[in-house]
Please model this.
Amino acid sequence: MKLVKVKSHEEMSVFAANYILDKVKSNSQVNLGLATGGTPVRTYELLVDDYRRNSTYYQNVYTYNLDEYVGIPIDHPNSYHAFMFEHLFNHINIPEKNIHIPNGLSEDIYEEAHNYETIIDGIGGVDLQLLGIGENGHIGFNEPGTPFDRETHIVTLTESTRKANSRYFESLDHVPERAITMGIASILKSRGILLLASGESKAEAISQMFTGKSSIDCPASVLKYHPNVVVVADEQAVSKLKAAMILSHS
Ligand code: PGA
Model:
């Protein structure tokens, strides 16, 4: 894993947007794995800014989101569908048929999970997967304890994840209890991974990921097994990492 230490959330977002744009501009057909959450919002804003200035071509970009809540309509303001359209898809010229997000309202969510994995397998894994990281080290909605060989599946969200996400909902009671998420094995199928971390609340997870043994207790630690991972973290997010560790991964 390569670590890119940056000063701020803004610097992290600029790095990430440029990294993604490199892929989009250098590959006539690129499969991007995308993430939701507070962390990538500014990155998406920068992609939209770039699109407005440069008319970057997204007709041949295909996207695959990591996850979606189970049981809330796609037009619910807190669905991940709504998030992606609000922050990115409504503002660039990507054809709707190129966009893939798990359907958390499917009549058979288990079949939906299976079909989603089949789509990922069909493209041989995404070219670049964008990831955030949970305070507990989760990636996608793969909470601690998730076996590393899980593919897309249905997950019961932990209390800490529901609490962290309740800031977007009226109250904790309104946060869905389940989600459909790419599994760790699905994520590992990506050819490249770009993980973003910003803020002190991620410092423990980042420290675990770099210094601890790879363990299901910190799902992000599985990324040690992947040959092409770039972690972009700001000063607060690396505040629990020793200088030597930062240097050795830079
Ligand atoms: P955040 O979430 O970007 O809102 O901090 C990240 C995650 O839970 O993966």
Notes: The chain has one domain: 2-248. Helices lie at 9-26, 41-54, 80-87, 109-122, 159-165, 184-188, 203-211, 243-249. Strands lie at 2-6, 30-34, 61-65, 67-69, 99-100, 128-131, 153-156, 178-181, 193-197, 229-234. The mean pLDDT is 95.
